[in-house]
Amino acid sequence: MKRVYANEKWCLGCHLCEYYCAYANSGKSDMVKALRGKKIYPRIRVEGDDKITYAVSCRHCSDPLCVKSCITGALHIEDGVVCIDRDRCVGCLTCILVCPYGAVVRGEGGVVQKCELCLKNAVGSPACVLGCPNQALVFEER
Amino acid sequence: MAISYIFPEFEVVRNFDRCITCRVCERQCSNGVHSYDEDGKVMLADESKCVDCQRCVALCPTRALKIVKNDCTFREDANWSGATIKEIYKQAESGGVLLSSMGNPQPLPVYWDRILINASQVTNPSIDPLREPMETKVFLGKKADDIRRGPDGELICDLPPQLELSMPVMFSAMSFGSISYNAHESLARAATELGILYNTGEGGLHEDFYRFGKNTIVQVASGRFGVHEAYLNAGAAIEIKMGQGAKPGIGGHLPGKKIVGEVSRTRMIPEGTDAISPAPHHDIYSIEDLRQLVYSLKEATQHKKPVIVKVAAVHNIAAIASGIARSGADIIAIDGFRGGTGAAPTRIRDNVGIPIELALAAVDQRLRDEGIRNNVSLVAGGSIRSASDVVKAVALGADTCYIGTAALMALGCHLCRSCHTGKCNWGIATQRLELVRRLNPDIGTRRLVNLLTAWKHEIAEMMGGMGINSIEALRGNRLMLRGVNMTEKELEILGISHAGE
User: Fold this and answer.
1) For chain A, how many structural domains are there in total?
2) Which of A10, A13, A36 minimises the CB distance to B27?
3) How far is CA A70 from CA A88, A101, A104, A108, B294, in A?
């Protein structure tokens, strides 16, 4: 299955992936309208220090702990992609506790959100990868 | 000093209605122009630090930024231009020699733009390069004057070593040190993919790049940095650098702060020491001396590699080239006064040397007149900007062209002319790791290959229009050129007729 992979060698720490992610999942047709003056809740996060940086998002594990631990069944797998049904999430945050990558985060409004590879928004393929200026993020089969 | 008389050259114009304060501008500016004000939740800018490299503009996701020329005006007149006034103030503040990067920006004539190319109409057919074969391949090196046969009638094939290029363009010398590892890797990989050559410049060859040897020209310059036997044998050809178009008569100086890690190892000098290339080669004071170096290098490489001698285009270039052609060199590279540089004294860059167009035409003519044109191939460099410049250069007599600035622009260079600061925001003219990382060689290689693939199509298109189907048939074919807006003398030197003639 194609997944988003980070190559820390080329990551500039510019954080653009976070903004493209937030925009892609905003449902708005214009980036300014979607993000100006707002706190963003991206599903990908740039981590690191002043020497090395890399972007972390859901690994879409084949046997995901988050899905196993979800008490309402909100987290589930669709064609290998770990998805969340936000209407079923009660915000118990167990998934955040168990995810070894810290890739599940609390979104706006208290329920959990996570990377769904932009398959459910208008972009159709990961916006972070499309927006990365240095190919530090790739969407490929490995 | 209490106040500076110099106002910022550029203005940072931010459309606050579009700014989403993602701070990418702040994170990407190595000059520290942008900053975020926590209290007001807005981006601020200190435009006095801006060099107009356009990095922030290119990365701003909402196109909220533009950099414009500051229209604040000195009391200029025809004699005292704003630039001259600014230079006076700058020197009065610093007491130093003015330094600049990239090529001569002065409004001196660009002869390429005054030369027009011919096309076939009615009486001779033009060729459609999409349907018919079009040969853009060139071979560089000493050519035989006649066909010779042995006693048995067999052809004697002892042609001196030749370089084969898929098109008449090569990447000119830019040292590892003046440009980054990733820029070098991009050039090397692109040259390999394109079937052309790139040039190490005077900085030695990084051990990782020996694998691109078949597409590498290794340079030997006056500082002899990084030169050893394996280095000489690593490349396809050896270039002796006598001069550089941007700074004829001047040596080089790579500041100690750029001599770090790999650069120091590759140059074979201690970290932190300035790499100073003397103005002359201290062992070359005559053509005979040059001949000794040419043959020393040939001996060191078993006479298997052509030797290039690179000179800056200066007043007596035709006579100089004639001497070089007799020194045993296989190829002469001439670098015009618009050639780029990582750092040069401004006065030298802007006032020394001559245009490549005139130098090239004069050299080609002189070598023909003396019957030694076949002794050498000619390479023209010093601001070749497009495929049409290449076609015009070939028609004026060049075998191939060197491009440096155009190649760097493909890699992201925005001609901000600040290479000497070492803070290149595009990861090209810098050794700071966090900046070098910004140039991913996968992207760089692709952009270089794209540029030259496009040029190759355009060259074929222009040649086809003239009814010419090979570079070989275009070389020195000055009948294909006409001049406009030139004096008799200029036309005479270029060896072309005026348009309408």
Assistant:
1) 2
2) A13
3) 10, 16, 12, 19, 76
